[in-house]
Amino acid sequence: MNRKKILIVDDSETLRAILIFVLEEAGYDVLVGIDGIEAQRHLNNEPLDLIITDLHMPKLDGIGFIKVVRSHPKYSNTPILFLTTDTQQNKKAEAKDAGATGWIIKPFDEDKLIAAVSRVIK
User: Fold this and answer.
1) Average pLDDT for residues 87-109, to the nearest whole number?
2) Measured between alpha carbons, how far is 28 from 100 in angstroms, rounded to an integer?
3) Which domains occur in the chain, in start order?
């Protein structure tokens, strides 16, 4: 069986470690980017089943990264969830307009994270 591949993009080492642990325990392969610029190396036409990106990052934030992802024909339909502590509706709308599939509010419950991932991954 092919394991689904998830790219996580977050500048927080602690959050990356939690995401890697939770997603790998749930049976997913995980790729990592520390910010929106560095994560672009994973946009190499290899299949990605889901991208989870933080909103606030140095160099290139989550909304900018979503726009970059959506400009790649190979990833134009890849589900993207963005992680945010932001509950502001305007940020959610901005991310959705950029191409985000949905969002996860931090801090998140591990079971809810896996449920959200399961909902959007094909």
Assistant:
1) 88
2) 20
3) 5-117 (3.40.50.2300)
